[in-house]
């Protein structure tokens, strides 16, 4: 049986958004990171872009306007999805966890999993289940906070995610590393082709 995200998890994320805990996602370096995610999109403009753990949908700021109607935000937090809707009324939103999400289409141009794969131990397995549920997925773009000498849990999370992704044997098409030189925080990104 698949793990279910509890109402307590959802409430916690909602409360954290309301308290401003995730306001930093609109900071310049996070925008640089999301511009890299958007720059890795290779699918056609008419293809859907599924943003798993979308947060407030800052990725939309980097998508050409014609893609806005093709953007699908999936998140467990109502507060995050309310912000997506305020940002872009044409965006589709789905309130679901990675473990609950069921695709409503047969194909998707791109699945973005940006800063969402480190919260559950089996997140990559959940991502693989979603990919397998489609007949066609053009690409999967992943962003993960990189290892940090002062943050052992970041290091563990990053290693766990990249190890699980490499076990899937998806083809790596593009990679990027972003570093904030003021804080030493890094992010690792990859554009993968499932197959
Ligand atoms: C750090 S934010 C990342 C937001 C955005 N993707 C970005 O890159 O800026 C993580 C988001 O993932 C969502 N989230 C956490 N666990 C999740 C899960 N199991 N399923 C779906 N969404 C989840 C949270 O509600 C939050 O909006």
Structure notes:
By secondary structure, the protein is an alpha/beta fold. It has a single domain (7-193), classed as Vaccinia Virus protein VP39 (Rossmann fold), CATH 3.40.50. Helix content is 31%, strand content 25%. A seven-stranded mixed β-sheet has the order 3-2-1-4-5-7-6, sandwiched between helices. Strand 4, helix 4 and strand 5 form a beta-alpha-beta unit. It is globular and about 40 Å long. 39% of the residues are buried. It binds S-adenosylmethionine.
Look at the structure and give the mean pLDDT: 94
Q: How large a portion of the residues is in β-strands, by DSSP E? A: 15-25%
| Broad shape | globular
- How many E strands? 7
A few lines on this structure:
The chain is α/β, with parallel strands linked by helices. It has helices at 7-18, 28-39, 78-87, 123-133, 152-167; strands spanning 49-52, 71-75, 92-95, 107-114, 136-145, 171-179, 186-193. S-adenosylmethionine (SAM) is lined by residues 5, 13, 25, 30, 53-55, 58, 75-77, 80, 97-98, 114-116, 119-120, 143.
């Amino acid at each position: 049986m698949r793990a279910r995200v509890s109402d307590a998890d959802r409430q916690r994320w909602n409360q954290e958004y309301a308290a401003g805990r995730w306001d930093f996602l609109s900071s310049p370096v996070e925008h640089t990171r999301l511009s890299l995610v958007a720059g890795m999109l290779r699918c056609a403009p008419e293809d859907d872009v599924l943003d798993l753990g979308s947060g407030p949908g800052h990725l939309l700021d980097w998508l050409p306007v014609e893609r806005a109607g093709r953007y699908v935000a999936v998140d467990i937090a109502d507060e995050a999805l309310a912000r997506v809707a305020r940002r872009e009324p044409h965006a589709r939103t789905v309130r679901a966890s990675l473990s609950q999400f069921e695709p409503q289409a047969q194909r998707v141009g791109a699945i973005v999993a940006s800063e969402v794969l480190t919260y559950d131990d089996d997140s990559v397995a959940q991502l693989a289940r979603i990919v397998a549920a489609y007949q066609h997925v053009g690409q999967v773009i992943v962003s993960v906070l990189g290892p940090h000498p002062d943050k052992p849990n970041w290091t563990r999370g990053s290693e766990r995610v990249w190890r699980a992704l490499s076990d899937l044997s998806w083809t790596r098409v593009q990679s990027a590393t972003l570093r904030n030189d003021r804080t030493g925080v890094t992010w690792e990104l990859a554009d993968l082709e499932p197959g």
